[in-house]
Recover the amino acids of this structure.
């Protein structure tokens, strides 16, 4: 059934050639129009979109007949005074008409022909009944719209009646209906189903898009247009990009409107499926979050009920665990991206439990026996790879805990990982990744500088510098670099003299000497607490 | 006569043979393409007045006078073929005086445009009466039921027709449309034209009764055209007449068709600069100008076609394909521009289903 519809749709496009819609030429090619004669004006390249039957010129408002064929069906314009015909032609042209159909094939008076040339209006005369010609022209001009409506209906019915239940077959159906390549891509424009050569023109702009095609080298247009329609899912998270998918097609320029309509119908269906998937994801996420909360509260042995729930979720609780905490900030769709996180983990060689946890994910790696120091180092490497992969998807800070044993060890290693993630957020120079083993005792001690009591004190200590973020940064790097000006300059990518000037300015603004050990320590701690400004 | 003389000069103006060239050209302009060629009547007046003069009175000072409106009715071409013997106008006046038992103390023109812009002045010489500068048309109009007195009163005063072969016909009673029908029937039957005189009329305020000072307008416009000399540009003519320029170019088509009433016709002019197509619909006068199919100027404004080279008026019955012309629009007499009067002279009263498109009178115009 869809095949026959696709056939009927392709029809009118094929008649009129690649880049032109219905025109006076295609109307004049109709069998009913065989006897029609051009009486005035140029019949070439006259676009037509509809037929307006006119009994009296007063029926024509402004722009009421844009790109129309006006049929002068009322009183006989042939016997009316010439000025009346002139006047109605002028009214028609003013209303946007491009052609007029008149009874009789006798030539028009010279001035009227001149007028039509001036008005850019082509007048056609016909001997037969005008209404027959008008009706055939109207049917012909409406054909693309009828075909488009059929195609849209086919898509809607196929989805509503359950014959198409997944994006892949839907893309195939659209492609078949439009007789052009169609693809479904993810939000970034990577093709999920359909023709892999299709490209979303501007995936960052969440609006329907049309782009005149180029020949690949990007210079000449080929009469083809890329039509892209975003699949939107509203109200997921505040600030979340609501474009989930793109539907893309590359079509002859004449079929752009039709394609838009079909893709719009398809996008509704895709959005429906996405919403259903989403609901399942959210439900699972809520279950995981609840289970994780219970696991983190664990101090001794888990209850049999908790054991069962963990087993049902596939979460190992016995053995040794290494926790990881990924903080993404609250604008990231952590539930929707969890499977991405899992994919990144397995690509990094990690079999992890991953659960949504506040503004990010918590997860752990488990082993039956205590991991050796070498194994821990290898693990840390894989966690870093995971972190790097996740950074391509979302800005994040990642912390990794030390190995701990038993069900309660999960909470312990995750607590260390959380502290490390907190510190990692302030360490762009370490890629915002920290492993508790690498922190050392002193660094771990620094964690307390994140407390709410220390931060205001640190802020007031650095107050004179806060108006210029580069000064705080310079101070931190200078102190980290053991007061070496050249290393500071290299790290910041500035000239050594600039670094020297900044340090002098910092000392002046703070009223301290950086040669004083105690001052240095206090300022270094304060820099940690205030954190880097990005 | 150069420029506009102060108004008091016009309270009593002596019209002499020297005024004939200006009078004739101005009367042709007010003809709006019709009204008949004023030149034969001008010659007639010049011959009659000799080195004397006719007193032309401003209508404001003529409230006490019994005014008989005189002029030629019928085909101007017939008048030109069979010129007046001189006695027709006086004969019509005497007949209507006898019928109405009142003597006229002044004359006025039935239509101060075209050849009738001059006939009343010639009659005034023959009858030794002053002429009041009020008339029944203020321009050329084709029908008696369009006379301002018919519009104001609903009927015409009794009138006498003197035919060129000597008969006199009196028409009294009935409305203006019937009167028009009777007069047309008589003219079709005998001679084609007649001298017409109405019974003497006394009115309080002539400006309410009809267009005023059309003869003065003829004299002023004509004098300005004469002052242009022989090689005037279209812009000069526009400035001299205070007109709106509708277009200038060659006549590409003239189509004439006989109809039930007066013959109809259509003239197409292609503007030389813009290539716009001007179509002038005409009956006895130019009635509507369409630019590219849309009406841009209509009666009762004066639609005037002048030859580009000579600035001479080209009448409806003279225009030919190939003429190089300038198409102008001049404001109608104030009387016709009034809303209560415009309906009688707008395009629909000539069977053209077009709304009036008029230019505004310049401030302080005397007519």
């Amino acid at each position: 059934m869809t095949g026959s519809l696709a056939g009927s749709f392709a029809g009118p496009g094929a008649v009129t050639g690649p880049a032109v819609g219905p025109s006076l030429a295609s109307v004049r090619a109709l069998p009913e129009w065989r006897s029609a004669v051009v009486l005035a004006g140029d019949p070439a390249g006259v676009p037509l979109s509809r037929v307006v039957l006119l009994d009296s010129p007063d029926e024509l408002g402004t722009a009421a007949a844009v790109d129309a064929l006006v049929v002068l069906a009322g009183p006989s314009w042939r016997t009316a005074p010439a000025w009346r015909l002139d006047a109605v032609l002028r009214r028609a042209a003013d209303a946007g008409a491009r052609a007029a159909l008149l009874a009789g094939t006798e030539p028009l008076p010279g001035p009227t022909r001149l007028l039509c040339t001036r008005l850019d209006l082509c007048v056609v005369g016909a001997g037969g009944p005008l209404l027959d010609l008008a009706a055939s022209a109207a049917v012909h001009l409406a054909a693309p719209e009828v075909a488009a409506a059929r195609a849209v209906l086919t898509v809607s019915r196929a989805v509503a009646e359950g014959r198409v239940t997944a994006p892949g077959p839907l893309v195939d159906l659209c492609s078949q209906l439009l007789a052009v390549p169609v693809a479904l891509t993810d939000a970034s424009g990577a093709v999920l189903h359909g023709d892999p050569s299709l490209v979303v023109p501007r995936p960052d702009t969440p609006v329907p898009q049309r782009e005149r095609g180029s020949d690949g080298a990007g210079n000449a247009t080929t009469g083809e247009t890329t039509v892209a329609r975003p699949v939107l899912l509203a109200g997921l998270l505040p600030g979340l990009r609501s474009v989930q998918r793109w539907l893309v097609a590359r079509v002859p320029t004449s079929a752009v409107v039709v394609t838009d309509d079909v893709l719009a119908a398809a996008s509704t269906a895709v959005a429906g499926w996405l919403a259903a998937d989403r609901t399942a994801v959210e439900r699972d996420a809520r279950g995981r979050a609840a289970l994780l909360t219970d696991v983190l509260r664990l101090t001794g042995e888990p209850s049999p009920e908790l054991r069962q729930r963990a087993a049902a979720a596939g979460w190992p609780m016995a053995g040794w665990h290494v926790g990881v905490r990924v903080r993404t900030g609250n604008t990231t769709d952590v539930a929707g991206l969890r499977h991405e996180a899992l994919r990144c983990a397995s690509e990094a060689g990690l079999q992890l439990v991953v659960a949504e946890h506040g503004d990010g994910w918590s997860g752990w790696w488990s082993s039956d026996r205590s991991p050796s120091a070498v194994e821990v180092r290898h693990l840390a490497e894989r966690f870093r790879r995971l972190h790097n992969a996740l950074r391509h998807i979302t800005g994040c800070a990642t912390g990794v805990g030390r190995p701990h044993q038993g069900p309660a060890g999960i909470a312990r290693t995750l607590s260390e990982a959380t502290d490390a993630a907190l510190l990692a957020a302030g360490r762009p120079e370490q890629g915002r990744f920290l492993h508790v083993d690498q922190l050392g005792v002193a660094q771990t001690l620094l964690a307390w500088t994140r407390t709410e009591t220390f931060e205001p004190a640190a802020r007031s200590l650095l107050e004179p510098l806060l108006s210029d973020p580069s000064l705080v940064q310079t101070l931190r790097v200078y102190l980290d670099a053991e007061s070496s000006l050249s290393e500071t300059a290299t790290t910041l990518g500035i000239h050594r003299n600039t670094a020297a000037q900044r340090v002098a300015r910092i000392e002046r603004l703070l009223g301290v000497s950086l040669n004083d050990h105690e001052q240095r320590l206090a300022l270094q701690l304060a820099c940690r607490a205030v954190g880097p400004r990005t | 006569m150069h420029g506009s003389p102060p108004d008091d000069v016009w309270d009593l103006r002596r019209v002499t043979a020297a005024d004939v060239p200006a009078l004739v050209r101005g009367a042709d302009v007010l003809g709006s393409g019709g009204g008949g060629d004023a030149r034969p009547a001008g010659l007639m007046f010049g011959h009659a007045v000799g080195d004397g003069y006719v007193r032309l009175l401003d209508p404001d000072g003529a409230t006490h006078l019994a005014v008989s409106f005189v002029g030629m009715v019928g085909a101007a071409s017939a008048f030109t073929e069979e010129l007046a013997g001189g006695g027709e106008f006086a004969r019509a006046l005497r007949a209507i005086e006898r019928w109405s038992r009142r003597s006229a103390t002044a004359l006025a023109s039935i239509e101060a445009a075209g050849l009738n812009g001059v006939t009343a002045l010639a009659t005034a010489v023959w009858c030794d009466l002053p002429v009041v500068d009020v008339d029944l048309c203020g321009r050329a109009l084709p029908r008696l039921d369009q006379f301002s007195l018919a519009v104001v009163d609903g009927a015409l005063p009794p009138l006498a027709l003197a035919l060129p072969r000597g008969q006199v016909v009196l028409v009294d009673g009935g409305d203006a449309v019937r009167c028009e029908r009777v007069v047309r029937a008589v003219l079709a039957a005998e001679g084609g034209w007649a001298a017409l005189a109405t019974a003497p009329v006394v009115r309080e305020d002539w400006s309410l009764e009809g267009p005023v000072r059309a003869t003065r307008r003829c004299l002023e416009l004509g004098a300005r055209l004469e002052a242009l000399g022989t090689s005037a540009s279209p812009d000069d003519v526009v400035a001299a007449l205070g007109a709106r320029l509708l277009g200038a170019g060659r006549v590409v088509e003239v189509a004439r068709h006989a109809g039930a009433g007066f013959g109809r016709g259509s003239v197409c002019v292609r503007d030389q600069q813009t290539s716009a197509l001007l179509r002038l619909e005409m009956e006895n006068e130019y009635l509507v100008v369409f630019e590219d199919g849309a009406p841009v100027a209509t009666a009762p404004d004066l639609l005037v076609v002048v030859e580009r080279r000579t600035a001479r008026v080209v009448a409806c019955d003279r225009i030919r394909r190939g003429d190089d012309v300038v198409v102008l629009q001049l404001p109608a007499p104030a009387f016709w521009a009034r809303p209560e009067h415009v309906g009688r002279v707008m395009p629909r009263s000539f069977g053209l289903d077009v709304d009036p498109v008029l230019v505004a009178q310049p401030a302080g115009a005397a007519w």
Remarks:
- The mean pLDDT of chain B is 92.
- Residues 214-228 of chain B form the longest helix (15 residues).
- Chain B touches chain A through 21 residues (CB under 8 Å).
